[in-house]
Write a structure and sequence with these properties.
By secondary structure, the protein is α/β, with parallel strands linked by helices. The chain is 28% helix and 20% strand. It is built from 7 helices and 9 strands; from the N terminus they run E-H-E-H-E-E-H-H-E-E-E-H-E-H-H-E. A 6-stranded parallel beta sheet has the order 1-9-8-5-2-3, sandwiched between helices. A 3-stranded antiparallel beta sheet has the order 4-7-6. It binds 6-phosphogluconic acid. 6-phosphogluconic acid binds at residues 43-48, 75, 77, 87, 150, 152, 156-159, 181.
């Protein structure tokens, strides 16, 4: 296992989602207990969305002051507002629509249509600007207290796919065309932005993620396994269920 990664295995998909929800609430309460607002970065996909639904279902959900949390996304499908394939749509339905948030602190990545039409490059640039506005002067993004990331079957995270150049771009956010995972047009954090997270939590659920989790833990170059290069400043957790972890041992 490459240094700095912690693998935590839960029995099944439900337990994994519930544990991530509980962990997230605890982390946010810690941050708020220290008198700070939190920056939370959300992900798309089944794993990330189930974790948000489990957060809502937790009896401790209302202990968090969600109105003091800034919500960001590490990637998004460049589709119209409300499209069911948008990561934003899934996160709103699973959690955000059911808690009290400050709309000014919810930062969805741009939708197609609206301000940017089909110009995904302009959309990426606008999100980079929004991040910079929330950052300490001179930094590209705020420090995210937690960055949730679903691991894809090919060991991608966000919309950073193996063998592509987006991860290494100097910007904080870039456009993606011809994504190997549909839909083809997206915006995504670069790896530099992901690494501006205090804690990165990678989520792997189900047997279809077993090889991806093995690759993420194998210390491979970033271009072969982006999930393995996604590291937090202080902590990098790989949160898996038993099916996803069947090719790796708990370390
Ligand atoms: C996306 C995602 C992507 C996702 C993983 C895992 O927009 O497609 O952000 O990175 O999180 O592919 O998705 P699943 O949990 O659905 O497998």
């Amino acid at each position: 296992m490459a240094s700095g990664q912690e693998l935590i295995i839960h029995p099944g998909h439900e337990e994994l989602a519930a544990a991530i929800g509980a962990r997230l609430i605890t982390k946010l309460l810690d941050v708020q207990g220290a008198g700070r607002g939190a920056h939370l970065c959300l992900t798309g996909g089944r794993g990330g969305t189930s974790a948000l639904a489990a957060t809502l279902a937790s009896p401790a959900c209302d202990a968090v002051d969600w109105s003091r949390i800034d919500f960001w996304w590490s990637d998004e499908r460049f589709l119209p507002a409300g499209d069911p394939e948008r990561n934003e749509t899934g996160a709103r339905a699973a959690l955000l629509d059911h808690i009290v948030v400050d709309p000014a602190r919810v930062h969805p990545m741009p939708r197609s249509g609206e301000r940017f039409g089909q110009d995904v490059d302009a959309a990426a640039l606008a999100y980079a600007r929004e991040l910079a506005l929330a950052a300490t002067p001179g930094e590209l993004t705020p420090t995210f207290d937690v960055c949730l990331l679903g691991i894809g079957e090919d060991a991608h995270v966000a919309s950073l796919f193996p063998g592509r150049t987006e991860a290494d771009a100097p910007e904080s956010v870039v456009s993606v065309r011809n994504s190997p995972k549909p839909p083809p047009t997206r915006t995504t954090f670069t790896m530099a932005s992901i690494r501006r997270s205090d804690e990165v939590w990678l989520i792997a659920s189900g047997g279809g993620k077993a090889e991806a989790l093995r690759l993420a833990l194998a210390g491979l170059p970033e271009s072969d396994a982006p999930a393995g290069a996604a590291r937090g400043i202080r902590r990098t957790l790989l949160l898996a269920d038993r099916d996803a972890a069947r090719l790796v041992a708990a370390g």
